């Protein structure tokens, strides 16, 4: 009897434990069934995945950098084109200014005056008329032997204008040749000083400074009374400045200020002297 009571007591305890298991599981939050987990990646798989991510990021960065560089290059090209256009316009404006000044001076100049009319002959007696005629004949014969035909003013002006038009068109080598041919064909002509000056100007614009300095020196030497003298002095000073020959440049600029004070060339010389002072030359 006692043994049977003990058996029943144990069965009651087991039944109570079984009934209490679901409640315990709910309170502890444990799932009733465990879900299947994916297999963990190996070290090699993880490294491969990381490399793919880094490669994709690097490629995107490179593409972005290339696009930025292309935009910067296009912007720089645009700026360079604008600067080139501005420089071309400035050079053309400067060239046109030089040529306009020369044209105005050329219009102010007149062609050489015709020779003065011969005075009327005095009345001679019939007895002396034969002697006068003989003397005139001898003089005519001797004059024909040594006289030179003066150049045609129209041909001279046309030749000068052709050379000058080449300079205006920017055909500097052709204009240099044309001005040299003009000076050989019309030595001592009324346009000689202008031709000599613009011969130097064509070389100066071409940045052949040695040739330009030689031509401007001929203006100073052969045409000391020419209206082109101040311009030749100024350009000679500019050339010495470009060649870093500061003393010679300063000497010519000072000469311009002393001999041609108040002229445009003297004012430009003063500005260049101020610039040399600022630059410490």
UniProtKB/TrEMBL annotation:
Keyword Repeat in annotation: no
A single cellular component GO annotation: outer membrane-bounded periplasmic space
Leader sequence residues: 1-25
All residue ranges annotated as the YbgF trimerisation domain in the record: 43-113
NCBIfam families per the UniProt record, alphabetical: tol_pal_ybgF (TIGR02795)
Task performed by this protein: Mediates coordination of peptidoglycan synthesis and outer membrane constriction during cell division.
Coiled coil: 59-93
Gene: cpoB
Compartments in which it is found: Periplasm
Keywords assigned by UniProt, alphabetized: Cell cycle, Cell division, Coiled coil, Periplasm, Signal
Family per similarity comment: Belongs to the CpoB family.
InterPro entries in the cross-refs: CpoB, CpoB_C, TPR-like_helical_dom_sf, TPR_rpt, YbgF_tri
Protein name: Cell division coordinator CpoB
Species lineage: Bacteria, Pseudomonadati, Pseudomonadota, Gammaproteobacteria, sulfur-oxidizing symbionts
Region (Disordered): 111-152
GO biological process terms, semicolon-separated: FtsZ-dependent cytokinesis; protein trimerization
Chief place of localization: periplasm
């Amino acid at each position: 009897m006692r043994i049977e009571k003990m058996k029943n007591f144990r069965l009651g305890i087991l039944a109570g434990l079984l009934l209490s298991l679901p409640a315990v599981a709910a309170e502890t939050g444990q799932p009733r069934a465990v879900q299947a987990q994916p297999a963990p990646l190996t070290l090699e798989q993880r490294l491969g995945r990381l490399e793919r991510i880094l490669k994709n990021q690097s490629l995107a960065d490179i593409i972005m950098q290339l696009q930025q560089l292309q935009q910067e290059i296009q912007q720089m090209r645009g700026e360079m084109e604008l600067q080139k256009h501005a420089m071309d316009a400035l050079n053309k404006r400067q060239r046109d200014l030089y040529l306009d000044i020369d044209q105005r001076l050329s219009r102010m100049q007149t062609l050489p005056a015709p020779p003065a009319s011969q005075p009327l002959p005095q009345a001679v007696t019939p007895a002396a008329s034969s002697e006068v005629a003989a003397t005139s004949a001898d003089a005519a014969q001797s004059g024909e032997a040594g006289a030179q035909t003066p150049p045609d003013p129209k041909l001279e002006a046309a030749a000068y204008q052709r050379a000058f038009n080449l300079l205006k068109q920017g055909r500097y080598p052709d204009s240099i040749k044309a001005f040299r041919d003009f000076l050989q064909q019309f030595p001592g002509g009324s346009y000689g000083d202008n031709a000599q000056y613009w011969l130097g100007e064509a070389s100066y614009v071409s940045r052949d400074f040695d040739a330009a300095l030689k031509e401007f020196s001929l203006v100073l030497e052969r045409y000391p009374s020419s209206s082109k003298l101040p311009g030749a002095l100024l350009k000679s000073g500019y050339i010495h400045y470009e060649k870093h020959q500061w003393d010679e440049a300063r000497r010519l600029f000072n000469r311009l200020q002393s001999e041609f004070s108040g002229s445009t060339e003297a004012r430009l010389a003063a500005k260049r002297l101020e610039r040399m002072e600022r630059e410490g030359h």
